[in-house]
Amino acid sequence: RGPWFMAKNLNNAMDKAYFEALGLKSLQERYLQLRSVS
Known about the structure:
By secondary structure, the protein is an all-alpha fold. The protein has one domain (3-37). 74% of the residues lie in helices and 0% in strands. The longest helix is centred in the first third of the chain and has 11 residues, at 3-13. The N and C termini lie far apart (39 Å).
């Protein structure tokens, strides 16, 4: 089991709200915003 397995576990433990509470922005949301503009 490598880093991908651990990433999956962390993603389940720390959801999007956790990172938003820290003031971090979602890279996926920003990517989708930029993709829809072009």
